[in-house]
Amino acid sequence: MARVRCCTDLDKTVLTQNFDKRFWMTVNSDEDWNFYWASVTTVRAIFNPSNDHPRLTDNQVINHFPNHYELTRKDLMVKNIKRYRRELEKDGNLLAEKDDYGSYKYLDFIPVTYMMPADYNLFADDFRRDPNHTWIMKPAGRAQGKGIFLINKMSQIKKWSRDGKSVPSAAQPRETYVISKYIDNPLLIGGKKFDLRLYVLVTSFKPLKCYLYRLGFGRFCTVKYIPSTNDIDNMFVHLTNVSYQKQSEDYNSIHGGKWSIDNLRLYLEGTRGKKLTDRLFDEISWIIVHSLRAAAAVITSDRHCFECYGYDIIIDDNLKPWLIEVNASPSLTSTTANDRIMKFKLINDILNIVVPNGDIPDIRTKFSNISSSPEALGNFDVLYDEDQASCELNDKDFREQKARGGIVPLISKTGMPFGKTKQSSAWR
Amino acid sequence: MNSNIDEKLKQKFLNQAQKLLISSGKSIEDLQTLFRTIQQSDQYPYFQHIFKSTEVIPCDEHKYEIEYLKRGQAAWEKRIVKSLNTMCTEVNLPLARRRNESEMRSVRRHWNELGHISGDLNRFRPVYSAKDFLDVICVLVNPNLKIDEALWNSGLIKIPIVTKSFVEIKAFYSDLCPNIIQYCSDETFNEAKEEENIKLALQILEKKLNIKSVREYARRGCPSSLRGKLWSAMLNIEHCNWHVTYFNYLKQNVIDFDLLVDNLYFKDVKLTAVNDDQLFVFEDYLYQMLLLFSRDTYVQACFTASASGCQPTRSFIKKKSGVEECSVVYPPNGIIPFYGFSMLVAPMCFVFEDPVHLYFIFRQFYIKHFFNLHHISAAPNAIIGLCVLFESLLRQVSSELWFHLQNIQVQPLRIAFKWMMRAFSGYLACNQLLALWDRILAYDSLEILAVLAVAIFVLRKGNVLKESSETAIEAIFSDISSIKVIPLLQFFLGS
């Protein structure tokens, strides 16, 4: 059996160790490779039509979709989700149902967001309607909490736009920002704010097939959350990004402020009850599926590609989850020992799914192995499988879900001899 | 029987007190006024009399009072108080002092993040650790027992206490045998059954049946969504306004006074829970709980109820050493914390969100059970009994393992002791730990701790038999966080 020829342009031990474990042969990117774990810039170059990079062969897989930014850039994600909602509404889909106040019953899962400076006037109208609300400004294309600030006065946004205009240049157009309503009632645990980091693996957008990783975690702020407006400059209170929190003197290097999803679940069941907890985790699954479907319409579902996304979700104190952003290259740097183990497993499970049995990948047979056993998925659960969903038209659950709008997110009935599916044990 | 009379009397007294308060027409804002109003009433002497006269001590309460153990506990108690006093001199701080105005304001302001008021903790170290305590227990010897050290191979503990045999343990924990379904313990559990089980729990709770029926139910585990209610029922804690009043009274006490032991609690939380990847989020809750706890004189009841008949040691007001009237129990609750004490509260934060509720559950759990984990007494439920049970079970269940360990001169109790003293808190995954604590309450006994410790040894027997150095054996048991408690117990009790 031929060895898989792999390469990566990232210097991450969790990757190289996983390659070594499989006895894969590490090669350079200009050589003939079968598996490439690359940075987004590299992938962009490979798929750039003006580039002279040779077309990928049937035996090559790579870890990003050509235009993943439709999902992972803050402004484009919002744009695509807004469009998705409009389309469902136009079709008269039940999912686009609205409540008495005119907000979507099932699709209202991103905070109100505007592009800056493009939607400045829309934002200004909204701001005047509710002048006491705090808003958060984020550069659309940057990560790890860089360039983020909070505002609660119109003057601050005016100042920002003035400062921007002082350095106008054609070569460097103004960086796009998004401004979102700040979730000012986050769920606090032990008085501290946190957000969820969930890993989602997509192996295809058309048809959509995605997996959710069980070992997600909550990231906690080191400082007690105080919803006062004078505190908006202390970003340690507000931003949960580990790369940011690490700078705090209260940062603990043993656990890095990370709390496992299992513990979150245990805590919520104990303090809020099982019903609400189940509903929360169900809604989170829906959010992920909706966001992926929204992006699926515009993403080039290249069969050479798979992608692992880092979903950032904030839960408010009514136990409603909000999608904050999706990251294309979630950090593979390990901050703690447990983190290292978790990320090693993550890569391990991804490789098992995208390169089944460690054989040389062949994209022509990519979708033939849909009946893969739950063991082969490791800590992943199938979150949504469009192919499978359309096959199971007779299933009663499916008909019920179909009545709700045609999406069956929690599906993993593949070859399960016992009634309880792997999916439901993790999420229900 | 006795407790039943007490209960009725208490009820009568509470009713009377309530009537009195209503008739007095005054508004009662704090505990002191409440006491004063009751003391001023004409029924006060009557109740005082009744309470005193019915204080009949049942004859078997002193069953476990053994003179040399009582002396042992007294000496130990004295030693840790002395060590606390030495620390007090070293760091040059008083045991207790009233805070000044600005300090009080600061405490009040930081009530939800008390970590901010802790001073320099570098000078403080835990008064004692599990190891120190084990060393003390090991040297306790029955003066009537002659031990030939050369022939002794029965482990570390040299106190002849009768504990349950393996057969008796199996019978006692018969609900944990492998063919009885345990709830909420594993993934393959059937969802319909689980729902049915939750319904049953709700029925039991609704009907307010006696504690027994709740315990009966909890023997097979508590669903995490109902754990709070079931625990409250088993600990006989009914949430009421009185709790809020008492909580605020203790809180005021924290605001008013700075105690030296506070630093020990701060230090302990920082050394343990803050570094624990499951418990760190509860840091600020823990400060609240522990500081209130240290000031709660009700906790002294542990000593009265304790089988050893030992009293907490008293400290003296400055320069009045030896004058009985000037002595007070210090800290006010009579408990000097050991290294890891905060781990006894921390897991409860997964079950209770409301600090008041959390406090009273912890206090009751502690008084009923955890107190026994660091108190020398001959009761089978206390730490010595658990040690003896651990050693004797291990001998009975796997003599091969036992003699292998004796041959290479490794004492398994040295490894298991810290687990038991902390009731396994911090060593297991939290859902596993809570399932274990469910059983402590359900069976109303700590013996399950010793049983689990033995089961863990048996589980890793294969590895142990291959090793012959102490460090290698220690390494085998250094991480038990992957243990699935209930299946392991089932496997062990079914063997």
Automatic annotation (TrEMBL), chain A:
One record GO biological process: microtubule cytoskeleton organization
Reaction it catalyzes: (L-glutamyl)(n)-gamma-L-glutamyl-L-glutamyl-[protein] + L-glutamate + ATP = (L-glutamyl)(n+1)-gamma-L-glutamyl-L-glutamyl-[protein] + ADP + phosphate + H(+)
Q: Which PROSITE patterns match?
A: TTL
List the keywords (alphabetical).
Answer: ATP-binding, Cell projection, Cilium, Cytoplasm, Cytoskeleton, Ligase, Microtubule, Nucleotide-binding
The entry's localization annotation reads:
Cytoplasm, Cytoskeleton, Cilium basal body
Q: Which InterPro entries match?
A: TTL/TTLL_fam
Q: How does it assemble?
A: Part of the neuronal tubulin polyglutamylase complex which contains TPGS1, TPGS2, TTLL1, LRRC49 and NICN1. Interacts with PCM1, CSTPP1 and LRRC49.
Q: Which family does it belong to?
A: Belongs to the tubulin polyglutamylase family.
Query: By what name is this protein known?
Result: Polyglutamylase complex subunit TTLL1
Organism this protein belongs to: Adineta ricciae (Rotifer)
Automatic annotation (TrEMBL), chain B:
Q: Where is the signal peptide?
A: none
By its UniProt entry, which InterPro entries does this protein fall under? Rab-GAP-TBC_dom, Rab-GAP_TBC_sf, TBC1D19
* Boundaries of every Rab-GAP TBC domain copy: 221-444
Q: List the Pfam families.
A: RabGAP-TBC
For this entry, the protein name equals Rab-GAP TBC domain-containing protein
Source organism (scientific name):
Adineta ricciae (Rotifer)
